[in-house]
Design brief:
With 861 residues, the protein is an all-alpha fold. Helices cover 67% and strands 0% of the residues.
């Protein structure tokens, strides 16, 4: 066989050849010049890591040397290294000659920037330091943009290397007018040289310098102390360790994401040169925003917002499927630039915040370690970007996730705006009150305004009532998917406005809307999830959704413990809703709903996707033969009154609604009452969520084996007894009795959670199909009314402390006993018509035919 025939077999010009020879975008790169492909591909990422390693060494070396020999001489040393290393790198004949020079370029670049930044800020007064620092970073951004233009014109890497190296020769002119740092001269007792520079500055600024002024000038140094401080002092105490590790992690993540986004522009859709230029351009408004706003709104919240929004933008940019859609390609680029904007802002903020948070005696050491953390982040960037070979969005997903985590951790840092700088380690206090700020303290809801506390909770539960009703109707009208996103949008807007509320009158409407949106999202998500699986798995899916609710319950306690200010907590539980934006590209519509709306083509598409994902084949036009199970066909319409028209139906309906009412009353009552229990309120709240998981697991495992009625009776009665005992046990400063009180309250929460799961299932099985949806709706409203009454019930402790728990327990026992009057439904076919519910026996009698029953076997709960 001829070699040409071999090439025809493997492809005469394909991806393999293009890797080596394509010059569509770049005329010549080190990849093509040194053949860094296939088994030599690793050198590409290694070279970038070597450069960042050079930056790490340069930051450390030039920092020490500029303190020893001065800022001015080290500036010129850095320029000389950069000129020589860049020129040799441009002439390198192989990767082994190129890498040492690339390392030295990293050393020199970091050294020059560090010395120039330090020298500039030391030549101005404190008032202008923020301005000068931001301006230096802006010139860095301008250079960033200029580089993209030069690379566009000079497509050969050797010419580009020379083009960015030779202008360093212009620094030679600085020899005649670049001053030394007067602060450094004074610290070295070189008063005469300092006097000369001060006289020049005075003359240029039109002022007169008193003779020998330097004799009376002292350069501020660390607080005088007999002991020396070392790195270990940054983590010696828990208070300092929390701050130091938090700062270093933020520096590490900032550098990782900043350089990751910068180097990742070549993988974005569109022109790589334009993308690179835009990535530099977005830095300028970000830095301007920092310069204008930081002294007005503080450091911590802007840092949190910048990191989180930037992280969310990264994740969205990485996960959006393009599929040759130009609009989505543009959106992907825009989101990447938004991420770059916010990470640039956070980079500026963390620089300033670190210097203000660390005590003076360890500030230089801490800043040095922080800078090293950033360089380590930079070194890891090329390796992280290579992870796209595993999954293309993986690098941006990692960057975004780390950024969000760092932003949330930033809320643990102390606010430094208008605060004096800490001097000693002892100035960093670890003391923390139970609550830093609540709506009670913020809006002064005490004395005559005390009633607003319970009213606000009732307003929230009223919102949940309205949300359950309105979203139930609207999702039947417009679909589950759109209403999910409507709920998410309402929750995001209402939560953000609530966090900024200036008074209770502004807060309450937003709190109401949060209740509406929360209930709506949960209802739609629950319905959609159960509609996407077969009958066999509905119980499992329903319980799993409730378990995730419990996990969120536990997570909330941890977030509240960390964020003692209610505004930060409000933002922390609201902003993650932005992640739901990613659901837009993969959250399906309910196929059952589509079929009920005769949207067979759309249903067919989703079914085909599901079949493909599950490894099965979907017959053509299967939806033409599919019918969604609905209520039994009948000529008459049914209304609410039919639920109580006969004594048989009335007994069942009223019993069910009373059980729903009591379940909600006791569940939310115990949840909101954890703050009054002995011990840590955050731990109690977390345990109250944790006990729900085994309760739900118990339901999932046992209900099909032991039935519904007896477990419901036992759960309600045991939970009620535990509530009464927890409320009436006299503590009298006895720690054992305090613990017992908490344990009993958690036992109550365990059993009431189990009963809540049982009553949901039992209601759907007891009510006839023709009135099932109406009955479930009224039952849900009964539960919401119970939730609305909870805050008022809890206020009864002002009359007698145990009274709320005694009422909860008594009602729970009563509801449990009444539950015995309900029919057992395990392994029984669903009743279809009102006539199927007989009053002659506790057992249900079914008068409909087997054919009629089969029509409703798949009725949705």
């Amino acid at each position: 066989m001829k070699f040409d025939d071999v090439l025809e077999t493997i492809g005469p010009f394909g991806k393999y050849q293009k890797i080596r020879y394509s010059k569509e975008i770049y005329s010549s790169t080190i990849v093509s010049q040194f053949d860094l492909v296939c088994e030599r591909k690793f050198w590409k990422s290694t070279s970038k890591s070597v450069f960042f390693l050079g930056r790490l060494c340069g930051a450390v070396l030039f920092g020490q040397l500029s303190d020893r020999f001065g800022r001015r001489p080290m500036f010129f040393v850095g320029a000389a290294i950069l000129l020589v290393a860049g020129s040799i790198a441009a002439a390198a004949q192989n990767i082994y000659m190129f890498l040492p020079m690339y390392f030295l370029q990293g050393v020199a670049q970091a050294g020059i920037f560090l010395v120039a930044f330090t020298l500039s800020t030391e030549l101005v007064g404190p008032k202008y330091r923020l301005f000068v620092g931001i301006m230096i970073l802006m010139f860095y951004s301008v250079g960033y943009m200029t580089l993209s233009g030069m690379a566009y014109v000079l497509r050969d890497w050797r010419y580009l290397e020379l083009a960015i190296t030779l202008p360093v020769l212009l620094f030679a002119a600085y020899w005649w007018f670049l001053p030394e740092s007067v602060r450094w001269l004074l610290s070295q007792n070189k008063n005469e040289d300092a006097q000369k520079y001060l006289q020049k500055a005075a003359a240029a600024n039109g002022t007169v310098l008193p003779t020998s002024i330097t004799e009376n000038v002292q350069v501020s140094t660390a607080v005088k102390t007999d002991r020396k401080y070392y790195f270990i002092d940054l983590v010696r105490t828990w208070s300092m360790a929390k701050i130091s590790l938090n700062l270093w992690f933020n520096w590490f993540v900032n550098a990782l994401v900043y350089y990751g986004l910068s180097l990742n522009t070549e993988t974005l859709a569109g022109d790589p040169y334009l993308n690179f230029c835009i990535a530099g351009a977005v830095e300028i408004p970000a830095l301007l925003l920092c310069m204008i706003s930081l002294n007005k709104v503080g450091r911590r919240i802007p840092l949190f917002i910048s990191m989180c929004v930037g992280g969310i933008a990264c994740i969205l940019s990485g996960t959006i499927p393009i599929n040759d859609n130009s609009d989505l390609e543009t959106l992907k680029v825009v989101l990447a630039m938004i991420g770059k904007f916010f990470i640039t802002a956070s980079y500026g903020i963390i620089h300033l915040m670190t210097a203000e948070v660390l005590p003076t005696v360890v500030r230089n050491i801490g800043m040095g370690v922080a800078s090293m953390s950033a360089r380590i982040g930079g070194i890891l960037v090329p390796t992280m970007l290579d992870l796209k070979s595993i999954w293309t969005p993986l690098p941006l997903v990692i960057f975004g996730s780390l950024s969000i985590a760092a932003g949330i951790l930033a809320l643990l840092l102390p606010e430094t705006t208008d605060k004096p700088l800490p001097q000693l380690l002892e100035d960093v206090s670890n003391s923390k009150e139970k609550y830093s700020s609540t709506i009670v303290s913020q809006f002064d809801l005490v004395c005559k305004k005390k009633f607003w506390t319970s009213t606000s909770k009732s307003v929230f539960f009223l919102g949940r009532l309205c949300g359950a009703v309105s979203f139930g109707q609207l999702s039947d009208r417009f679909g589950r998917r759109p209403m999910f996103f409507v709920g998410a949008a309402i929750l995001l807007v209402a939560g953000s406005i609530a966090a900024a509320a200036q008074n209770i009158y502004m807060f309450l409407p937003m709190y109401f809307l949060q209740g509406v949106a929360q209930a709506g999202i949960f209802l739609v998500a629950f319905t959609l999830s159960t509609e996407l699986v077969g009958p066999k798995y509905r119980l499992f899916v329903g319980i799993m959704i409730l378990m995730f609710y419990s996990v969120g319950y536990m997570t909330l306690s941890g977030m509240a413990y960390v964020l003692r200010d209610w505004r930060y907590l409000e933002l922390a539980i609201t902003l993650p809703v932005l992640l739901f934006a990613a659901y837009w590209w993969f959250l399906p519509e309910s196929v059952r709903w589509l079929l009920s709306q005769n949207k067979n083509e759309d249903a067919q598409k989703y079914l085909q996707k599901a079949a493909a994902a599950n490894g099965t084949v979907l017959p053509t036009s299967i939806t033409e033969n599919v019918q969604v199970s609905t209520a039994v066909k009948t000529d008459r319409k049914y209304y609410f009154i039919d639920l109580v028209r006969t004594w048989s139906m009335a007994k069942i309906s009223l019993n069910l609604w009373f059980n729903w009412f009591v379940n909600a009353l006791v569940y939310y009552g115990l949840s909101l009452n954890t703050e009054t229990l002995a011990g840590d309120p955050y731990l109690n709240f977390c345990i109250a969520g944790a006990v729900e998981i085994p309760a739900l697991l118990l339901c999932m495992i046992s209900l099909n084996k032991v039935g519904r009625r007896i477990p419901l009776f036992i759960s309600m009665c045991v939970g009620g007894i535990a509530c009464i005992l927890s409320g009436t046990i006299p503590i009298n400063d006895n720690s054992d009795l305090e613990t017992l009180k908490v344990v009993l309250a958690m036992i109550g929460k365990f059993f009431i959670t189990a009963s809540y799961g049982i009553i949901h299932l039992m209601t759907a099985e007891v009510l006839p199909t023709v009135v099932r949806n109406i009955g479930m709706g009224v039952a849900s409203m009964s539960a919401r009314i119970g939730g609305i009454l909870v805050p008022t019930m809890l206020d009864l402790k002002s009359i007698w402390t145990p009274l709320p728990l005694v009422i909860f327990g008594s009602l729970s026992i009563a509801a449990g006993i009444l539950a015995l009057l309900l029919p057992e439904t395990t392994d029984k076919p669903l009743p279809q018509l009102l006539e199927d519910v007989s009053s002659k026996s506790k057992k249900l009698e079914f008068e409909t035919t087997e054919e009629e029953r089969e029509k409703c076997d798949d009725t949705l709960l």
